Amino acid sequence: MLVLTRKTDESIILGKNIEVKILGIEEGKVKIGIAAPKDIEIYRKEIYLEIQEENKVATSSKADLGGIKNFFKKE
Q: What 3-state DSSP class applies to 2?
């Protein structure tokens, strides 16, 4: 892991087109801004992990497919 020290209004660049800027530091919290192309997905880690877990459940054979089977059932 790369560890950097930045002050307010200082940035780091990721790749050629992503900038992470420190907007402020107060009460033990860091406010950051991220400038990236619109096709780059940006998530908080806890949200990203939830999405990954939901995807695993949705693609597992244990997923409840009863509703889908009934939807396509011919009457």
A: coil
Cα separations in angstroms, 69 against 20, 56, 62, 65, 74: 46, 20, 14, 6, 10
Q: How many domains does the chain have?
A: 1
Closest CA to 40 of 21, 12, 19: 19
Please answer whether residues 8 and 25 qualify as being in contact, where contact means their C-beta atoms are separated by less than 8 angstroms: yes
- What pLDDT, in 10s, does the model give residues 47-63? 999 999 988 888 875 55
- Contact yes or no for 22/6 (Cβ under 8 A): yes
Residue 6 lies in a domain: no
Residues 34, 41: Cα–Cα separation, whole Å: 11
Predicted pLDDT of residue 75 = 60
